[in-house]
Specification:
8-stranded parallel barrel; disordered N terminus; TIM Barrel; 10 helices; 227 residues; single chain; alpha/beta
Length: 227
């Protein structure tokens, strides 16, 4: 039985363990984060993913539960300095984040400055010490196939734990083709997070079948209820 057939046997509720329940809108207010946390607890999602200014609040709301706190860093452009990204990661961890999703320096990658890109990831890796999961958002919609391969190799070399498809703010969406390519490059020692356009159970199953080990979604309840 191949991977897709196995994953087709997953019930909608079984997908909760894959999901980072996400709220990254600029205009989100406290009630939205209360709802986010309540839903994450009710459905046993893997984590909640928020901007760093909300980490302390959601960490307090989730205290005593099994739901992890994930903070984005350098979001959504990835064009901040490495020191800025490292500081944001360190501060988010101090506030309660146990997972960091950083945006790769996309422009530097596209101009071929691979040493800068690797050092940029390493700066955040050093700030996100042992025990904190680091995911690198490569923004697949902006990259050629060769650039996607290079991005994955650099993330692996810099010590990241996951590569991730998209911010959701730069156009495009997670595709099974990209997930399969990313998984092939990083190998079984690293995870692959599909984010961007993951809105229902069928899409989630397709991406997991392609190799995704984590899903970033706002439509998390629709995924786990099959609606």
């Amino acid at each position: 039985m191949d991977k897709i057939e196995k994953n087709a046997m997953l019930e909608p509720k079984d997908l909760a363990k894959y999901i980072d329940h996400t709220m990254l809108k600029a205009d989100a207010v406290k009630v939205a984060f209360d709802k986010l946390c309540d839903e994450a607890i009710e459905y046993s999602f893997k984590s909640v993913c928020v901007n760093s200014s909300w980490v302390a609040y959601v960490a307090n709301r989730l205290q005593g539960t099994k739901v992890q706190v994930c903070s984005v860093v350098g979001f959504p452009l990835g064009a901040m300095s490495s020191k800025s990204k490292a500081f944001e990661a360190e501060d988010a961890i101090a506030q309660g984040a146990r997972e960091i999703d950083m945006v790769l320096a996309v422009g530097r990658l596209k101009m071929g400055d691979v040493q800068y890109v690797e050092d940029d990831i390493k700066a955040v890796r050093q700030a996100a010490k042992k025990g904190v999961i680091l995911k690198v958002i490569i923004e697949t919609a902006m990259l050629t196939k060769e650039e996607k391969i290079t991005a994955c190799r650099l993330a692996k070399a810099a010590g990241a734990d996951f590569v991730k498809t998209c911010t959701g703010f730069g156009g495009g969406a997670a595709t099974a083709e990209d997930i399969a390519l990313m998984q092939e490059i990083v190998g079984p020692a690293m995870g692959v997070k599909a984010s961007g356009g993951v809105r229902n159970y069928d899409k989630a199953i397709e991406l997991i079948g392609a190799g995704a080990t984590r899903l970033g979604a706002q439509s998390s309840i629709a995924i786990v209820t099959g609606k």
